[in-house]
Amino acid sequence: xxxxxxxxxxxxxxxxxxxxxxxxxxxxxxxxxxxxxxxxxxxxxxxxxxxxxxxxxxxxxxxxxxxxxxxxxxxxxxxxxxxxxxxxxxxxxxxxxxxxxxxxxxxxxxxxxxxxxxxxxxxxxxxxxxxxxxxxxxxxxxxxxxxxxxxxxxxxxxxxxxxxxxxxxxxxxxxxxxxxxxxxxxxxxxxxxxxxxxxxxxxxxxxxxxxxxxxxxxxxxx
Length: 222
Hints:
Blueprint: E1 2-4, E2 12-15, H1 21-31, H2 40-45, H3 49-61, E3 73-78, E4 81-89, H4 96-109, H5 114-122, H6 125-130, E5 139-146, H7 155-170, E6 174-180, H8 184-192, E7 196-202, H9 204-210, E8 214-221
Parallel strand pairs: 5-6
Antiparallel strand pairs: 1-2, 2-3, 3-4, 4-5, 6-8, 7-8
């Protein structure tokens, strides 16, 4: 799939491929950052950014296909260079169990000890209080990020519009998205696409770790 944007000279959209794994790892990394000094991947994988990217690249390619698998992503590129990415999925098809299995598969490939693997799984506990993984039949938008130099140019709006069309084609009736409390640009973008807030999940430990009081959840009828 190659879809021209409103300004096709600037960027085009296409389905992600295995060769995009390194870039998609960066997208996942960027999308996880709130206002705090740590992201969930800092807790799970340690603070070394290069090591995080190595692990996330493995996760993008890992089987079984989980929420982070390249097959769910759309990529925007400009002059042959990927500049943004976002993912759409139905959680019942890419379950929390598949995510855990994929995480452990990558950890084992990298030679992690059993103790470190157990710590890896536990590191998501606080994050999951505000962003719980589900097995719903809704279309969920996830891992949405653009390279800093291309932000504010309508790239994410095009990406998400394309993914919402994919959700409609999948037969889903409702789309979901979430953002960190206080992320006004995300809120404005999602509202522009038609999403409306349904609830907030707030947690003091979450705020301490990630610098946001919690997460706002939104839905859109497809």
